[in-house]
TrEMBL record:
The lineage of its organism: Bacteria, Pseudomonadati, Pseudomonadota, Alphaproteobacteria, Sphingomonadales. PROSITE patterns: PROKAR_LIPOPROTEIN (PS51257). It comes from Sphingobium naphthae. This is Lipoprotein.
Length: 134
């Protein structure tokens, strides 16, 4: 077995257990509220399609938004904290197939040096949809 295959479960193990995410700052909370304004939360999903291409919006080192369209946004609370996201580090998701799923391993890396800055896993995806007009 390759060395990286041993380290992935160990790194993910560090993302579970007693991890408590940092509370959002007032600025981050306002940004989240603005992005989800007028939308209603649906049932959480363990996977979402990679297609169509989604726009990633970083709220904090552990809260992400995937915008599919003006009417659909998925909120993801990461398992663990991917340090560096809020300062512009690149997010690298290791998933297989056409979907991103809860538990997919994620790292962050500096776009300049390529040095990794954090490791976490994707959490559940909560859809926020604009309600249909009567």
């Amino acid at each position: 077995m390759r060395a990286w295959m041993w380290t992935t479960p160990l790194l993910l193990a560090g993302c579970t257990g007693s991890y408590e995410p940092k509370p959002l700052t007032p600025k981050q909370m306002a940004e989240l509220d603005e992005a989800l304004a007028g939308k209603v939360a649906g049932e959480k999903q363990t996977c979402i399609s990679r297609v169509p291409q989604t726009n990633l919006r970083v709220i904090s080192n552990n809260v992400l938004l995937y915008r599919v369209s003006s009417k659909l946004v998925y909120k993801n609370e990461l398992i663990g904290s991917c340090n560096g996201l809020t300062r512009g580090d690149i997010m690298i998701v290791r998933s297989f197939g056409s979907q991103m799923c809860r538990g997919d391993f994620t790292t962050t890396a500096s776009p300049v040096s390529g040095i990794t800055s954090g490791a976490c896993a994707l959490g559940d995806f909560i859809p926020y949809r604009t309600p249909k007009q009567p």
